[in-house]
Design a protein that fits this description.
Chain B is α/β, with parallel strands linked by helices. Helices cover about 35% and strands about 25% of the residues of chain B. Chain C has helices spanning about 10-40, 45-50, 65-95, 100-115, 115-130, 140-160, 165-175, 180-210, 210-215, 235-245, 250-280; strands spanning about 55, 60. Chain C contains eleven helices and two strands; from the N terminus they run ααββααααααααα. A two-stranded antiparallel ribbon of chain C has the order 1-2. The chains are: A mainly alpha, B alpha/beta, C mainly alpha.
């Protein structure tokens, strides 16, 4: 009995340290990054495209736009492929095939981002340059590479969402004479809608946080991209590229960029959670 | 198996969850070497009462109680009671058989290992006795190392009974142990209980009034958390003193 | 003109056909990536390559110190994060009541597991390397990675623990077990495959990590002699070799070693996951 209490106390201490350690990171990042946002002025920091650290100009708008373009591009590609994959694997393929293919998709998630970036630079970028013009290092290249990288995330959550739809819904639809595909479009997708949306949101959260692959294929130009073929710099690449030699205000500005990322991702996560709760709530109300 | 002479007595016992009473002011005694059946419709507090006997309700959030449950005169809810020892002496069998995902041997040995007894010879000896009492020895004696999941439902439930018997309890409490079992397994378990009452007190909660009539010495009728009537089984079934008892047995409600 | 009505079965065939094309493209991409790296790199992965040290900035020689560096940084990270993460998960699921606090902690862990590694790198750089004066070192790197994988380990362990049926716990307690005995003998034993999967995946993530490592462990090519020495990991080495154009054959070879290690870990994680599913089904 006594031993039980001691072990309980040890576990409490460990858990508290872990949790406070993680909270510490959050506090730390904010403490390092927020002051400079206040000093430069929030409007200046977030709405100016002028990023010139040597002159003390810290405006991250072009990078925010860059991250936005690239993330949305990745989401589009991710959605198309992941949804197709998820539907095929849950509805239209024999169990042995989906059981084999699912872990293979997970394999895609394990490939390091530097490898993705490298293959992208060596094969995709020249392809874009020769067939579509521009430098090749572009929003398009980054979107495609990121789309492939977040595919496993979106797919596995989408598969969970699709499989969570009660079989009775599907059986009911088929019993009325609908084909499998009609059931999918009219019943399944609608029932799983919140889970699928959550999957995409989480995929976007992953995409916006990706660093190395983006650095290698996006071009890293500081201007706001105007089209798919323009080079772009994202919030993450900015931090990685300049952290090595930044100091003083410059370093703080990079922390502030980190704070921005942190807030965006937390918002995305909250949105995803809210969306999937909505589904559970609706189910309970039935 | 040691012979038990333990008496358990509920005195004004009330149990509630988040303020909602499940058992109201219960006065009931469990005598040594008897099989007491507890019958009643759903939500009558039968399972709540049972789970209070080994303090398993302590795990449920919002559980509160007043009154006492005396075991040989001492309230089991006193602060200085060793709950682990109580649970070893008041052994519970659940409605659904729950074999742990290990071998038959490990399932049976688990209780004693928890108590610190690891001596193989002692374990083996008790195992044979416990399986014998559960009428399971012949069926598994050559298969002790195999996973418990290979057993049928009825066998698994007898395994759960044997698992509890390994600790040489004084009281056995069973919560609808035969629900979902085929008639042959049910008969085997009821026969086992007859043999077991020689050395234990047995409390059997059952939804099946016919089982209560077959397999008990006294029967208690619970309704909506209150004890309506308790008495020798034959008398309760043929000449119940309370109208509600009669109505329930006649199938007027339930 | 009359509206063309495509019969539903035909629509289905077209739609499903299209999706199978998408699926094939996806797997083709995967195969392409792996084949591309491995065909260019495997020929250069020789025993000498694996056991020698690099010379002239990696243009020649092998990658032994880098392999060691990777093992140290990633291995140490998981060695630190795993016990802490599992203990935290145990405490959260077994020793506390479900409530606002646990939901908040769970949400926080979820958020942090989504935070980009670069931010952990930032933190590690300023906190470990500078404030705690550990400098760019194996220690800074592995502690940073440990913090990075900690939320993931907590979440996967917690899920594995919660998947253990409540009835198991009741049986154990009913037989006179204490809370810790129940946790140790029943819950953890049953949750072990799921927990191990999470740990193995975290190891894979640590090995692949580049940005955070670059900022905290540095990029020294020498063999690390102590935890305070800077070191380079396979992923970082590959990145530097390829970006600076130092040596393409070596870059491919390094990437091949990295990929094979990741593949092996994924296979392991998958095998563990299978055991998890089999046990849960019983």
């Amino acid at each position: 009995m006594k031993r039980d209490k001691v072990i309980g106390a040890i576990l409490l201490v460990v858990a508290l340290s872990a949790i406070s350690g993680l909270a510490l990171i959050t506090v730390f990042i904010f403490r390092e990054g927020v002051p400079i946002i206040l000093r430069v002025g929030a409007k200046q920091f977030f709405l100016s495209t002028d990023w010139e650290p040597s002159l003390g100009h810290f405006g991250i708008l072009s990078m925010m736009v860059g991250s936005l373009f690239v993330t949305v591009g990745a989401a589009v590609i991710g959605v198309v492929f992941s949804l197709g994959l998820a539907i095929v694997l849950t509805q239209f393929s024999p169990p042995w095939l989906s059981a084999t293919l699912k872990p293979v998709i997970e394999l895609l998630a394990g490939i390091p981002s530097v490898v993705y970036g490298f293959v992208g630079v060596v094969t995709l970028v020249p392809l874009i340059r020769h067939s579509l013009g521009g430098p090749g290092l572009s929003v398009l290249a980054a979107s495609i590479v990121l789309g492939v990288m977040v595919l496993p995330t979106i797919t596995s959550i989408a598969i969970d969402a699709l499989q969570a739809v009660p079989k009775s819904y599907l059986e009911g639809s088929m019993a009325l004479g609908a084909t499998r595909w009609q059931t999918v479009t009219m019943v399944l997708l609608r029932a799983a809608r919140s889970g699928l949306v959550a999957a995409v949101i989480l995929g976007m959260g992953r995409a916006i946080g990706e660093t190395m692959a983006v650095i290698m294929v996006a071009g890293n130009a500081l201007d706001v991209p105007h089209g798919l073929l323009d080079p772009v710099r994202t919030l993450t690449s900015n931090i990685a590229l300049e952290m090595g030699y930044a100091s003083g205000d410059h370093r703080q500005a990079l922390f502030a960029t980190g704070v921005t990322l942190f807030v965006i991702i937390t918002l995305l996560n909250t949105a995803a959670l809210a969306v999937s709760r909505q589904r559970a709530g609706r189910r309970r109300a039935q | 198996m040691k012979t038990s002479t333990t008496t358990i007595r509920a005195q004004g016992f009330t149990a509630s969850f988040d303020g909602q009473p499940a058992v109201k002011s219960l006065d009931l005694e469990i005598l040594p070497n008897e099989r007491l059946a507890i019958i009643g419709p759903a939500r009558s507090g039968k399972t709540t009462f049972l789970r209070s006997l080994n303090r398993l309700n302590d795990l449920s959030p919002g559980f509160a109680h007043t009154g006492k449950i005396l075991r040989d005169g001492k309230d089991i809810y006193d602060a200085d009671v060793d709950v682990a020892e109580l649970r070893r002496k008041v052994g519970m069998v659940y409605a659904t058989p729950v074999p742990l995902p290990w071998s038959i041997y490990d399932n049976l040995a688990y209780g004693l290992r928890l108590a610190g007894i690891r001596d193989r010879a002692r374990l083996d000896e008790r195992m044979e006795a416990a399986l014998g009492y559960a009428f399971l020895w012949n069926e598994v004696k050559d298969r002790l190392r195999e996973p418990a999941s290979i057993l049928s439902g009825g066998q698994q439930q007898r395994l759960c009974i044997a698992r509890v018997l390994m600790l040489e309890p004084e009281v056995l409490i069973l919560d609808e142990p035969c629900s979902g079992l085929d008639p042959i397994s049910t008969a085997k378990i009821e026969d086992a209980l007859v043999a077991l009452k020689e050395k234990h007190s047995i409390v059997l909660v059952t939804n099946n009034t016919k089982q209560a009539a077959r397999a008990s010495d006294r029967t208690a009728f619970f309704l909506l958390g209150a004890l309506i009537e308790v008495g020798p089984t034959a008398q309760v079934f043929t000449r119940p003193t309370q109208k509600q008892t009669n109505d329930y047995l006649m199938g007027q409600f339930g | 003109m009359r509206k063309l009505r495509v019969p539903p079965v035909a629509t289905q065939r077209i739609a499903v056909g299209f999706m199978w094309i998408l699926t094939t493209i996806t797997f083709a991409v995967l195969v392409f990536i792996l084949a591309f790296i491995l065909t260019h790199g495997l020929p250069h992965v020789t025993w000498t390559f694996l056991t020698q040290s690099p010379t002239s900035m990696g243009r020649e020689g092998g990658i032994f110190p880098i392999i060691l560096g990777t093992l140290l940084v990633a291995g140490l990270a998981v060695l630190v994060a795993a016990p802490i993460g599992v203990a935290t998960a145990v405490y959260l699921s077994e020793y506390t009541r479900e409530g606002r606090l646990t939901s908040v902690i769970r949400f926080g862990a979820d958020c942090l597991s989504g935070v980009p590694s670069i931010i952990f790198g930032l933190f590690g750089f300023v906190f470990f390397a500078i404030t705690l004066r550990m400098g760019l070192s194996v220690l800074s790197g592995s502690l940073t990675l440990a913090l990075m994988v900690l939320p993931t380990i907590i979440r996967t362990s917690e899920e594995a623990i919660r998947a253990v049926p409540t009835s198991y716990r009741e049986v154990s307690l009913g037989l006179g077990g204490t809370r810790w005995q129940t946790v140790f003998y029943v819950v953890l034993r049953s949750a072990l495959p799921g927990i191990s999967t999470g740990i193995v995946l975290s190891l894979g993530r640590s090995i692949s990590e580049t940005a955070a490592v670059m900022l905290t462990a540095g990029s020294a090519l020498r063999l690390p002699h102590s935890l305070f020495d800077s070191s380079r990991t396979l992923a970082l080495h590959f990145y530097l070799l390829s970006r600076e154009g130092i040596s393409m054959p070596n870059a491919y070879a390094t990437a091949s070693v990295l990929i094979i290690a990741i593949l092996a870990l994924n296979v392991l994680a998958y095998a563990l996951m299978r055991r998890f599913a089999v046990k849960a089904a019983r």
